[in-house]
Amino acid sequence: MLSEKSVLIVEDSALIAVDIESILAELGATDIATEGGGETRIPESRRFDLAVIDIHTASALGDSLIEKLGQESIPVVFLTTGDETRIETGYTGRSEIVRKPFTYEDLCGAFARLLG
């Protein structure tokens, strides 16, 4: 499903980021960039096929990340601990919402719906 795909992860919890990386690698992603925390720098020159983003971490980074992903039509899996059925980010591209704590099946289902 993710064979040869490039994926951006934005998550401030190292444990959750490692879990996501493991799932992505198992599904065949070969280029995974993980960012998070207060010093996050999103790679400017890289092109991603998919992004997995903690909504609260992304909101701390400002609107530029969401705008860039939207301009490049990159599908996004938004992670949240809340009850949101919609996330007000201004992002208008294809997206899925996955609630934490998530399962392997939760993420795989979101990836399949976005990339399938």
Describe the fold and architecture.
This protein has a 5-stranded parallel β-sheet. The protein is globular and about 30 Å long. It is built from 4 helices and 5 strands; from the N terminus they run E-H-E-E-H-H-E-E-H. Helix 1 links the parallel strand 1 (6-10) and strand 2. It has helices spanning 14-26, 55-61, 63-71, 104-115; strands at 6-10, 31-35, 50-54, 76-80, 95-99. Helix content is 35%, strand content 22%. The chain is of the alpha/beta class and 116 residues long. The protein has one domain (6-115): Response regulator (Rossmann fold).
Provide mean pLDDT, rounded.
87
By CATH, the architecture is named 3-Layer(aba) Sandwich
Radius of gyration: 13 Å
Shape type: globular
User: β content, as a range?
Assistant: 15-25%
* Helix-strand pattern: EHEEHHEEH
Total beta-strand segments: 5
Stretches where pLDDT falls below 50 for ≥5 residues? none
Describe the largest sheet.
5 strands, parallel
> Level of helix content?
25-40%
Q: How far apart are the termini?
A: 8 Å
Give the total of domains. Answer: 1
> What do we call the CATH topology?
Rossmann fold
Topology (SSEs and partners):
Elements (H helix, E strand, L loop, with lengths): L5 E5 L3 H13 L4 E5 L14 E5 H7 L1 H9 L4 E5 L14 E5 L4 H12 L1
Parallel strand pairs: 1-2, 1-3, 3-4, 4-5
